[in-house]
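Hi R.,

Here are the chain sequences for the assembly we discussed:
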Amino acid sequence: MSDAGAVTVSIPRAAEVVRRRRALGRLAGRNRLAAVAALALLAAAAAALLAPWLPLADPDVVDTPHRLRPPLSPGHALGTDEFGRDLLARLVWGARVSLLAGVASAAAAMAIGVTLGILGGFYTGWVETVIMRLTDILMAFPYVLLAIAIVAGLGPGLRNAMVAIAIVGFPLYTRLVRGVVLSLREREFVEAARALGASDAVILGRHVLPHLLSPVIVAFSLDVGAKILATAGLSFLGLGTQPPTADWGSMLATGRQFVILSPHVVLLPGLAIFVIVLALNLVGDALRDVLDPRAAAQ
Amino acid sequence: MRRYLARRLLLLVPVLIGVSIIIFMVLHLSPGDPAEIMLGSQATKEDLARLRADLGLNEPLHVQYVHWISHVARGDLGRSLWMKRPVLGEVLTRLRATLLLTATALLLSTTVGVALGVAAATRPNSPLDRLSAVASLFGASMPSFWLGIVLMVIFALWLGWLPASGMYAPFGGGDLRDLLSHLILPAVTLAAASVTIVARLTRSAMLETLGQDYVRTARAKGVSNRAVVLRHGLSNALVPIVTVVGVQAGYLLGGAVLTETVFAWPGVGTLMVQGILARDFPLVQGCVLVVALSFVLVNLAVDLLYVWLDPRIRYE
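And here is the predicted structure of the full complex:
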């Protein structure tokens, strides 16, 4: 900038420029962190997808003479568990289950929640009343408790745990989407479309749905981590994945009894859950900064 | 206030009916015969018939519900199949332990969270503020049951400072000191994630109130910083803080299940998980009902607290 230009910049404007630069700097810093987190997630997803082709030991082969080996043991980079099974292989195979369970239950919750949210926001009368009362009642339960109760009814198992988590998770999306749809319903462009004779399906698909994408993507990205934690929690209680299938929550539960002798059997799966959920939260926060700056500022 | 309380209590009725329907329906979701699921495949035909008659499973579903809810209304939650005792007494005994754990965790998360949030808001972008931001991200990402195990390994097994599990020492314990020493690790574990949420929300609510004109006026009048922060800032930021504390109370009640399992705390959570693994439906139904009822009452208490904290709030 030339000297003449600098003189014309008023002090408040200069302060504003500095403030914006700092904010941008912070955003860039956070996004760098989010980029690292996204890379970590990609690596975990790739390892989980490619598990059958990776040079790993069989995760279910029992080798009791070599049980509870510490990390960096010959042939077992991360050691072995209480049955002598290779921990690295079980962590990678466990990632398939844990990541899939998190993504699938969040996607199911999103699909149910968004559909009901659109219906509840767009149509008044009994449709709205039924949907919103159902949402209120589901939200009158502590989240984990309801998931446990549903698994109690359906029976322990990974699929039932995912169903339970999707059921307790959908009201969040219903509330979010209904709020947006309620405000959109009264906007001029929706009224104009209706005046031009557009059907409800066209109005919802072409005019309402595009506005829902940003908030729903942000909510979903933050929700996957919460769902991974929830499925791991159910598996930890013995209500999710059943033996001998490896998943991070059940590995933690079985390893708990051997924590004095071999803390690594508990520390490693817990660390895996922590790192993946942290990475998902960082990516979700960054997405919110980009897609929904108003919510991020709040 | 009395009219408002009466209205709120009346509004509870449909919520409680809805909650009870969901609890009832959930345990009838299972594909197959509930009696067979409860007694296992080894059960004889006579045993199955007797259990079906005892639980009224031969009746249509709506008749079963009305039968169940009328007993519940009279305080009869049925008999546990596994413990062969009335469910209500067992659940209420365990509820005391759960409420003690939850209340301690809530007290911990509220005091530490509000103090951290106020400190972070009075010094935005300071190291403490950044630390609290990082802690909140960690708190939202860490599995509580894993944190519990890590704390147990460090403080109970390696350092030997605190007991690893249970509510009282098996021998020679039983006093308040013994109870408190057993309570520390589970309460800290349960409160950990909640502290960070309360701290972040307190920070943002405080930043908003500290930016108001009346705060500037108070400062211009020469009011001390401490009085400005506590009397003008915190007291006006209390409504959103109470909201989040109320929400946390619910999360803690539900989250207690995992913490209780880690530390073998004899609460409703451990009882419920044992009930599920034993396929003891009346016991599970009783546990869920009592905890859900506690949650609804906590929410009511939070709503009443709003009116007391901020007289401008009148729900009409």
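Chain B touches chain A through 49 residues (CB under 8 Å). The mean pLDDT of chain B is 85.

Let me know if anything looks off.

Best,
T.
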